[in-house]
Amino acid sequence: MIDFFSWTLVDAKEWAVYEGLKAFRGQQVFDALHRNFAQNFDDIHVLPQELREKLTADGQLLPATEHTRQESADGTVKSLLELHDGCLVECVSIPTETRHTICVSSQVGCSVGCTFCASGINGVTRDCTAGEIVYQVLFHHQRRPVTNVVFMGSGEPMFNYDNVRQAIAVLCDQRGIGLGKRRITVSTSGVPDRIRQFGHDEPQVTLALSLHAPDNDTRSQLMPINRRWPLTELLSAMDDYSQLVNRRMTIEYVLLKDVNMSTEQALQLAALGKRYHAHINLIPFNAVGSSAHDAPSDAEVLQFSNIVRDNGGIATLRGQRGADIDAACGQLAIKKGGKKLDC
Ligand code: SF4
Questions:
Q1: Per the confidence metrics, is the pTM higher than 0.85?
Q2: pLDDT tens, 150-177?
Q3: Is 252 a catalytic residue?
Q4: Residue of 103, 156, 186, 212 best suited for mutating to test ligand 1, as the one with most atoms within 8 Å of CB
Q5: Which atom of ligand 1 is found nearest the CA of 118?
Q6: 90 assigned to active site
Q7: CATH classification for the domain delimited by 64-335, as one of 3.30.360.10, 2.40.37.20, 3.20.20.70, 3.40.50.300
């Protein structure tokens, strides 16, 4: 199966020439996928029938089919996509009046194993290809044009670096969706060297640091990756990143009752926010079945956010979109029996 969705327009033309075709045949395929949402090669009527038949014989066009869908009363749509080998990944469409944001997965499952996240429960199965990432966006783009993409679904994007970068290149191709890089956010749990490299490679893309605790002990309990790269190493990389990239980054902070919500932690978080001129997203925990963590009360959330703001942190309380569906990352895949069907 050829991964057509992983190609920019230039790649598609090169493929056509490599196949002994005119370069414009590559452009016709690219347009069919990104503008006309062709579902199979027979839909691409501008191609000669002989070529359509050859491509059909080589394998299916779409890298995934929708396995399960949940729709929230607030318009959030969470789709579980089944990839060609039976693996399952989630992508979430989050519409507002002015935006249509898609949250994509970069890996099937996740190796990081944060204690508050369902995606890491079964570990990682494999990386998503660039085409599988792009298709998560195109899948929802057919319904309403996409304005923003966030890499905050399952997986650690920095562990699938090349495919994530290629997916960004395709999504920003002016002949396709043509997203601006500034409308893309890549979230990381904290891989120091990759953060530095990302600053060099993608200075226009917003970086979101999944911090979730401002002290080493708590962070190591919540995020095993902190034992490999403790806060001192991570913050050193963030210092280098902020020297390189003159843009506001984001700090993600999930609020877990009695774990990371002390006054001291609020003060430390505010200080880190100021150090990086970061926007802090406070995310009240959305409990997952028999989770090890509890959701904080509204009063506890308010108190914590007030301390952060009163001490100079630029903090937003993220509203819970899709609270009536399994909208936290990994929840739908887990409910459907784990990270995969039969791959
Ligand atoms: S929060 Fe992100 S990095 Fe942590 S386990 Fe979930 S998907 Fe992986």
A1: yes
A2: 999 999 999 999 999 999 999 999 999 9
A3: no
A4: 156
A5: 6
A6: yes
A7: 3.20.20.70
